[in-house]
C-alpha cells in the first residue's frame, strides 16, 4: 500500500500533539518543512472569470485579499480547528478582537445578552458598555449557579457569554448546564476558554456553539505577538463571524499567524509543565500562614472542585491567592520577587504576577470588584516554565517580607 492509503493521512486519526505539529499544513512546490510565510496583501487571478467566481464564493480555497483570507492565516485557523474539534475558525488581531467579533456578530439591535458577571474587564466592557450603544441590552449574573442564567433569559436573548475558569478568581461555570439553558431559549453559548486551554477543556463537546481564545496567551506562550481566534460550526464561522471580520478588518497578520503556528507545536509540552507546577504551588501556598485563601480549580479547597474535575482535565496554568493584610501586603510580596515578573499577561513561558484590583480590573467600581471576588489582597499568578522549586523559593521569600 502507498502512503496515500495510510489512515494517518486523515488528521481525525491523529492525536492533538501530532496535529499541533502537522495539522493544517499546506506546502508550496518547494516542499518546505516549516510553514510558508505569505507576506502579501493581495493576489492575482489567472482570468477575469476566475476573479468573478472567486468573489462570488464559488472557488474553494481561493484568496482575493489578506484582510479576510491569507494562506498562512488559513493554516493557523485550520490547526486550531483540529485542536478544538471545530468545523471552522477565524483568526483575529488580538484576543479582544476575537471576543468582540464573537459577541457582536451574533446580535442585532433589540437583542439581549446574558453573561456571567465574573469576566475579564475588557470582555465585561463589550457586554455591559459597548453592545448597549447599538441597542443590545445585557444582564449579568452570578455564573456559579446555572439557575441564574435560566432566570435571566428573555424572549429576545440571542447570546449567553461566559468565561470558565474566570479571570482572575478562577470561578467555574457549568458549560453543559448553561448550554442546555441557552439552547432551550434559542440562544447561542459563547465560551472564552483561555484559562483552561483547548487541551484541557472542550466547550464544543459540552454544548457550546462558539469558543474564543486570546492566542497571545498559551498559544504563542512566549510574549512575542498578539492574536485571537473564534471557533465553531461552519455555518456560524463562515457566516456572521466571517462577514464581521471582513467588514471591520480586525485581521491577524500573516507574520503573527506564522509565529502562532510555531507556538502550537510546543503547546502540549509547555502547558503540561505549567499545569504541574501550578498544582504544586497551589498545594504549598494553601498552608502558608500569610495566605488567607488559594483558588485553584483542581485543589480540593476550591468550592467547585467536583465540577472542575468533571469539566477540566487539568487545573489550569493559573492560580489566584489572597494575601492577608490586603493591598499593601500584596504589593510588598510582588515587589520582593526576583524570578516572577510583575505584568498583566498570562500563559507565558515566564511566570507573571498581577494585582487585578489596580490593573486589569481597575476600571470597575469597587462594588463590582468586591462582588466578583477581586479583593485588595488578591493576586493572580500565571505559572511559566521555570523550575517549580525556584518559583516556590521566590514566593516564600516575598511572603517572608510581608
Q: Any overview of this molecule?
A:
With 402 residues, this protein is an alpha/beta fold. It has two domains: 3-265, Aspartate Aminotransferase, domain 2 (3-Layer(aba) Sandwich), CATH 3.40.640; 267-400, Alpha-Beta Complex (Aspartate Aminotransferase, domain 1). The protein is built from 16 helices and twelve strands. The protein has helices at 16-22, 48-55, 71-84, 95-104, 121-130, 146-152, 175-184, 197-200, 216-220, 234-248, 254-265, 267-286, 305-311, 326-335, 366-371, 388-400; strands at 88-92, 112-116, 137-141, 157-163, 188-192, 210-214, 228-232, 291-295, 318-323, 341-342, 352-354, 378-382. A seven-stranded mixed β-sheet has the order 1-7-6-5-4-2-3, with helices on both faces. Helix 8 (197-200) links the parallel strand 5 (188-192) and strand 6. The mean pLDDT is 95.
Amino acid at each position: 500500500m502507498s502512503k496515500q492509503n495510510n489512515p494517518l493521512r486523515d488528521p481525525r486519526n491523529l492525536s492533538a500533539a501530532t496535529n499541533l505539529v502537522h495539522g493544517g499544513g499546506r506546502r508550496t512546490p518547494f516542499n518546505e518543512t516549516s510553514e510558508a510565510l505569505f507576506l502579501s496583501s493581495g493576489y492575482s487571478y489567472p482570468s477575469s472569470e476566475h476573479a468573478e467566481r472567486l468573489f462570488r464564493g464559488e472557488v474553494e480555497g481561493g484568496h482575493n485579499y489578506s484582510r479576510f483570507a491569507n494562506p498562512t492565516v488559513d493554516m493557523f485557523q485550520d490547526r486550531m480547528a483540529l485542536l478544538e474539534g471545530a468545523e471552522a475558525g477565524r483568526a483575529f488581531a488580538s484576543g479582544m478582537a476575537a471576543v468582540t467579533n464573537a459577541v457582536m456578530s451574533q446580535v442585532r439591535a433589540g437583542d439581549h445578552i446574558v453573561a456571567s458577571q465574573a469576566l475579564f474587564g475588557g470582555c465585561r466592557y463589550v457586554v455591559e458598555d459597548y453592545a448597549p450603544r447599538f441597542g443590545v441590552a445585557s444582564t449579568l449574573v452570578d455564573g456559579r449557579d446555572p439557575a441564574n442564567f435560566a432566570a435571566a433569559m428573555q424572549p429576545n436573548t440571542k447570546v449567553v457569554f461566559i468565561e470558565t475558569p474566570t479571570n482572575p478568581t478562577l470561578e467555574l461555570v457549568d458549560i453543559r448546564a448553561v448550554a442546555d439553558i441557552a439552547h432551550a431559549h434559542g440562544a447561542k453559548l459563547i465560551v472564552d476558554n483561555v484559562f483552561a486551554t483547548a487541551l484541557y477543556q472542550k466547550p464544543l463537546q459540552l454544548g457550546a456553539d462558539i469558543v474564543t481564545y486570546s492566542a497571545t496567551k498559551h498559544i504563542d506562550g512566549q510574549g512575542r505577538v498578539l492574536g485571537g481566534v473564534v471557533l465553531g460550526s461552519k455555518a456560524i464561522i463562515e457566516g456572521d463571524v466571517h462577514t464581521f471580520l471582513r467588514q471591520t478588518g480586525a485581521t491577524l497578520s500573516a507574520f503573527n499567524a506564522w509565529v502562532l503556528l510555531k507556538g502550537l507545536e510546543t503547546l502540549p509540552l509547555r502547558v503540561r509543565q505549567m499545569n504541574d507546577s501550578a498544582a504544586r504551588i497551589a498545594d504549598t501556598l494553601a498552608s502558608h500562614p500569610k495566605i488567607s485563601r488559594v483558588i485553584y480549580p483542581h485543589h480540593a479547597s476550591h468550592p467547585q472542585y467536583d465540577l472542575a474535575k468533571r469539566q477540566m482535565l487539568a487545573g489550569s496554568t493559573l492560580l489566584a491567592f489572597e494575601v492577608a493584610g490586603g493591598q499593601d501586603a500584596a504589593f510588598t510580596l510582588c515587589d520582593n520577587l526576583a524570578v516572577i515578573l510583575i505584568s498583566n499577561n498570562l500563559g507565558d513561558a515566564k511566570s507573571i504576577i498581577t494585582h487585578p484590583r489596580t490593573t486589569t480590573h481597575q476600571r470597575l467600581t469597587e462594588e463590582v470588584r468586591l462582588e466578583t471576588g477581586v479583593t485588595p489582597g488578591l493576586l493572580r499568578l500565571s505559572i511559566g516554565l521555570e523550575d517549580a522549586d525556584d518559583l516556590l523559593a521566590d514566593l516564600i521569600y516575598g511572603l517572608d517580607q510581608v
